[in-house]
Amino acid sequence: MNTYPEPAVTFVRGEGSRLYDADGRAYLDFLGGLAVTSLGHAHPAVADALCEQARTLLHVSNLYGTTVGPEVAATLDRLIGDGAPGGGRVFFCNSGAEANECAFKLARRWAGPGRHVVVSAYGSFHGRTLTTLHATGQPEKHEPFQPLPEGFRHVAWNDAAALEKAATGEEVAAVILEAVQGEGGVNPASAEYFQAVRRICDERGLLFIVDEVQTGLGRTGRWFGFQHFDVQPDVVTMAKALGNGVPIGACWATEDAAAAFRPGDHATTFGGQPLATSAARAVLRVMQEEDVPSRAVAAGARLRKGLEAIPAVADVRGLGLLLAARLEGVDAKDAAARALEAGLVVNPVSPTALRFAPSLLVSDDEVDEALAIIGEVLA
Length: 379
Ligand code: PLP
Fold this sequence. Notes:
It is a single chain. By secondary structure, the chain is of the alpha/beta class. It has two domains: 11-30 and 295-378, Alpha-Beta Complex (Aspartate Aminotransferase, domain 1); 48-290, Aspartate Aminotransferase, domain 2 (3-Layer(aba) Sandwich). Helix content is 36%, strand content 20%. The chain contains 13 helices and 17 strands. Strands 4-12-11-10-7-5-6 form a seven-stranded mixed sheet, with helices on both faces. A four-stranded mixed sheet has the order 1-2-3-15. A four-stranded antiparallel sheet has the order 13-14-17-16, with helices on one face. Helix 3 packs parallel to helix 10 and helix 11 runs parallel beside helix 13 (364-378). It binds pyridoxal-5'-phosphate. Residues 34, 95-97, 100, 125-127, 178, 182-183, 211, 213-214, 239 line the site of pyridoxal-5'-phosphate.
């Protein structure tokens, strides 16, 4: 359907940080399928896991037990606890929007009748289903689809006082925030903001949901973005990097919050099936072996420093390997199109900023090569 503009390039193959078109031309991928292919393209461990699982068991439905999902859930719980058990439970689904839908339903169930409002931030992005679209704090995206499901309130980003004011009333159940607003332009939250939100949620008995769909699993330099801020959320949603390209999402919640769901309250046909979870198991194994958060810190620092040295770059924002370069006197869309022609995939996250979300296994040479292309394009 007519939901995306006509693509400029069609890719047929990928390997590590490289993509190839049908003519065999190579491109350096510094977008990572929108922060999805965190281990690069065609990672052998993920490919092997998929092939082996495809020959073993693809799907049985959630009416029966399988062995891989619980293993992945336990690993996610430990990563959320930063090495110690996180004390939570996991619902598997197929995308980021579905993970957030799960979080919203859980919040309503947990809070009880009459308490259903979720507060989110302007500039946020939480998905494209009707409910997650309303959670998304970008009113211009709402307009063609009104009326949207009721129950969302939007407040200024990174402004604890505004949130404190908006999160009042018996009807409020939860707050949802990203650690770094990704689609909104790569805008990190401050530690003080997240800590204030935690306090407000504690004082008022609200669930603090952190949407880690774009920031999760090492990209920002910690396993999860909230870990930069010394707070513990009640619910964490993730997707994108979890399958390195295989569709899978997950909603983690503390034991206390998760206990609000009863059998029959929420379900999915495909979520948690062995094929997707075996990909996630392989992804998480490699991520831990390679210590991807540390790699994101090191490669992110190199990329940031190189970008800051380019004259047309006004400043660089973001964390780890989720960065945006604000451009001066250059249209970002134009710059991204020219970069693509020059063999580099980047994304204009706003009219004035380019987003970088390469593989977390990107090499120093690849970072330098990307910087040389960007420097030349902007010059
Ligand atoms: N939440 C955040 C923070 C995202 O960046 C995205 C997608 O970009 C989503 C949710 C929606 O995820 P999906 O497209 O997998 O539904």
